[in-house]
Amino acid sequence: MMILFVSLDSAYVRTKGEEIAGALIKTLLGELQNSINQKGLKGSVSYCSERAIPLTDSLSKAYGVKIKRTSFKFRNPKNKPDKMEERALRFFENAMKGGKKPEYYIQTFRRGNQTIHRYYKPLFVAPLCLNCHGKDNANIPAEVLQEITKRYPKDKARGYSEGEFRGVIRVEFKE
Ligand code: HEC
To answer: Does the C-beta of 168 come closer than 6 Å to ligand 1?
Structure first.
């Protein structure tokens, strides 16, 4: 049973969450850029597919936390949101509909006799992302599209435009 409550002093959660989410973005973007330079876009689909989760997991280990990337429109079924993550995703979607762009969202709850925090950082679609998450053919080159649909027959993560809300990085840690 999870009981959700509002955290009064969230500065600690915000600082720690932001640091770790930032480190993941830096790592993944750096590796993605390297891969595109070396192997091109098509080659980088397999790179994302084989390296994104292991890199995320090794950063989780290094920080002693649990990091996940998730979205309503997930590409890899392993990134499917749970109930609490759905609530966070909805928070960002609703805020954007109201013309706002929050920088984070925090959930604090009890699990057994432990207090757990979840820090969520939203991700937005940049021009680079359109190569693999944009519109078929218009943004995603044919050979890249072929590679994506081969690996992810049930892919939901295409059709985006620049600036759209793509999903979140979720960092979970104990009090
Ligand atoms: C070279 C192609 C490529 C580019 C460019 C790319 N992605 Fe992805 N993206 C992928 C692949 C492949 C996956 C699935 C990874 C996996 O299997 O874990 C993915 C997964 C994701 C996920 C995890 C949720 C899900 O759908 O499974 C997020 C979030 C994401 N991408 C955001 C972005 C953002 C933001 C950018 C731009 C900064 C970006 N991607 C650029 C190929 C790409």
So the answer is: no
Mutate which of 59, 76, 130 for ligand 1? The one with the most ligand atoms within 8 Å of its CB, which is 76
Instruction: Render the burial of 92-114: b for 16+ CB within 10 Å, e for the rest.
Output: beeebeeeeeeebbebbbeeeee
Residues in the chain, total: 175
Q: Burial code of 49-68, b = ≥16 C-beta within 10 A, e = fewer?
A: eeebeebbeebbeebebbbb
pLDDT band with cut points at 50, 70 and 90 for residue 137: confident
pLDDT recorded at residue 3: 54
Q: How many CB atoms lie within 10 A of CB 47?
A: 16
Q: What distance lies between CA 78 and its chain's CA centroid? A: 12
CB atoms near residue 33 (< 10 Å) = 12
34-79 pLDDT, tens digit per residue, is 999 999 999 999 989 999 999 999 999 999 999 999 999 999 999 9
What average pLDDT does the segment 132-157 reach?
Answer: 96
